[in-house]
Amino acid sequence: MSWKKTQELITTYLFVLPAVLLFVVFSVFPFFKVFQLSVFDWDGIAPQMRFVGFANFRDAIFRDPSWWISLRNASVITLMTLLFQNTLALVLALIVDREIRGKNFYRVVFYLPPVLSGIVVGLVWNWIFDGSHGLLNYALAGVGLGHWTRAWLADPKTALLSVAVIHMWKGFGWGFVILLAGLQAIPRELNEAARVDGAGEWRIFSRITVPLMLPVFFLVSVLTILGTMQIFDIIISTTNGGPGYHTEVPITRILVAMVGSSRFGYACSLGILFGLILLAVSLVQMRLSKWSSRYS
Amino acid sequence: MERQVKRGLSCAAVGMFLLVMGGCSKQDAASKNEIVVWHWLTDREDALETLADQYEKSSGVKVRLEVYAPSDVYSSRIRASAQTNTLPDIFGVLGEPWDLASYIKSGHVMNLEPAMVAEHGAWRHQFYPKALATNTFIAGNQYGVAPGIYGVPLDVTNIQLLYNKDLYKQAGLDPERPPKTWPEWMADWHQLKAVGTPGLVSGWGETWMINCFASNYAFNLMGEQKVLDTYRGKVPYTDPDWINVFSVFDEIRKEGLLVSGAVTMINKAAEQTFANGKAAYAFNGSWCVHPYQEMNPTLSYAPILPPRFSNRFPMRIWGGAGSSLMVNAQSPRREEAIKFLKWLTLEPQQAMLSKETFNLPSNRSSAVALPPILAAFAAHMEETTHPSQWPVSERPAITEAIGKGIQSILIGEKTPVQMAQEIEALKKQQ
Hey, what long-range contacts does B293-300 have (CB within 8 A, 24 or more apart)? Predict the structure, then answer.
């Protein structure tokens, strides 16, 4: 290799070196450090760690029912979000996609909740769901449904549902924006040609819109699953995982293990297990996404 | 030209690389005449800055205060700095006794006992003994820490039951005769309930507040020795006395004493509820005086010991050092740090801090001129206890399970017996 070529090569590597260094220090190193810590018993302070092998994973899988409860709770919220949040997002996207007055205004309004802080949203909804002076209870009492009033976030029958509602309210704007972008990417001529051929709105939706939107549906679904499974800030600002374990989710359990119990190794093992679950979900989505791309 | 641009860009890239490396280097060492203090006390930030300026004028030593808040952010920063040996000269350790013990065993916290007992124990004697006890490890402690005093209490605190005097008056009760026993409390509550007054509020969404209340009644029902023996594994949680402790919460549920939603409420929200007169009682610490003053200056209330459930043992409340500061054992400015802490805990500085921030001073002499509400809190300092003062403490997983289990009792999901069995099973597993 000529000296000029070598110089160019060195220059190129010098350019990428800072970025690589940052990536290694702040992404690659912590990633492997988590794996290392997961096989140690460590309180996050002591200079020495005790090697425990896979004991932390064994404890998480076989001896910690609260971990499984948290996974179940997150799955329930995720299912509700997939069904209701995304349906709402799709309906709103379909409405705004039409030539209606003030559609830009609606686009902004629907996108407002996602940009708000989860803690702020939680505190506002605390006030809405408050058992003694909450807005929801006032509204219910006002329409003659006083017997339905309750402390929504403290009642084990409604706590998880209430948290899910808050999460869906905060999150539907994401789905709305992506679905709207997908709808607008469908050539208008297709719909017009179908109408000329006598197809009704339902037929256009089911035979043109849905097949062409399949990749977008999968994208929104996987983002919903990954985002909802990692729900945290709303829980912390509303129920703190309670009452009992009724609204505990994986991230709150990891936090309790790390900060509350100073079990860093155990917290890392929970993080790895949780990461594996999310990785599996992502792999399934990638497969489905490829399949849907071919289909559409 | 192209060559020059390339060379310039290469230099910029190298410069950035060096900057990144520089960012990863150790912090700049403070000068000989500067002490660095990391704290989390946002409510005392201005007062501490004022005191730091005063100290610099009187001693020539600059005190650089750095605030990291909220407390979990602060804790993370301290942990990370401990790993890289970049702790400041003075810092605080938040968390369980296990955490402080680990910092001490790792050589990060200096034993201040020699400084405390010097000059016939002058420094030591100025504090409330319970405040010092919070930072003291006695011989043979379960943590394996060498005996000593490892922190300087900046203030003291205790957690009591508060009652709203105006709501008492409105219900036809004598506001100067608060309940002392459980039957008296329930009688008062029935009268309050009859006029539609909501009952007790507390941040029981934060399980440590529940554990604190449960601990009060555990000491009252079975005494300190039996509580500690339970932690040692000598007494099971299925013991009738423990079931009685958990039954206190079942009583609260049956009587409808707890304000709706309090079981998942954070303490800040609970403070707001009590300050706005929407609860007759609150279970809260002496730190509440400042927020209540801010939220409702006309609020008329007083602290009392939680009413006794039994006469077998005295009621004990959680209390001791509120905020404590530790000296970095590896700091080259240890002596300067100790001098500053000695100065900070002298009577005038403590009085100033108390006046400005409504906290109970750790210096007993400064407690003379306290406002009545703080004096009422201070009056019960001798009845305080705290997990950090006990020779043995419960494992965090059990403590969490007790808090969660009590929440389940309060929502009627579990009975005290069921909960006791579950806790005992977990204890055996641990």
Answer: B293/B358, B295/B271, B299/B164, B299/B274, B299/B275, B300/B164, B300/B165, B300/B166, B300/B175
What CATH number is associated with residue B57?
A: 3.40.190.10
- Between positions 116 and 175 of B, the ones with CB within 8 A of A are none
Q: Quick check: is B173 in a domain?
A: yes
Task: Give the B window 390-429 contacts with A, CB below 8 Å.
Answer: 396-397, 400, 404-405, 407-408, 410-411, 413-414, 429
Counting the structural domains of chain B, the total is 2
- Integer Cα distance of B122 and B120 in angstroms: 6
Give residue-wise pLDDT tens across range B86-128: 999 999 999 888 889 999 999 999 999 999 999 899 999 999 8
Nearest chain B CA: its distance from A160 CA (Å): 12
Domains, chain A, in order of start with CATH, read 64-295 (1.10.3720.10)
pLDDT tens for B365-382 read 887 778 889 999 999 988
User: Measured between alpha carbons, how far is B151 from B321 in angstroms, rounded to an integer?
Assistant: 9
Query: How many angstroms away from the CA of B135 is the closest CA of chain A?
Result: 18
pLDDT value, residue B1? 54
Is B205–A240 a contact, with Cβ atoms under 8 angstroms apart?
A: yes
Q: What is the DSSP letter of A60?
A: I
Residue B124 lies in a domain: yes
Q: Closest-CA residue in chain B for A151?
A: B261
On whether both B122 and B174 belong to a single domain, the answer is no
Whether B211 and chain A come into contact, CB under 8 Å, resolves to no
> Which chain B residues are closer than 8 Å to A59 by Cβ?
none
| Tokens, residue A135 | 């807005």
How far off is chain A from B93, nearest CA to CA, in Å? 11
Instruction: Note whether A199 and A207 are within 8 A (CB).
Output: yes
Task: Tell me the pairing of strands B34-39 and B62-67.
Answer: parallel
pTM: 0.85
ipTM above 0.85? no
Q: Domain residues for B177? A: 158-319+395-429
* A vs B: CB pairs below 8 A: 114
Q: Is residue B2 domain-resident?
A: no
For residues B117 and B84, membership in a common domain is answered with: yes
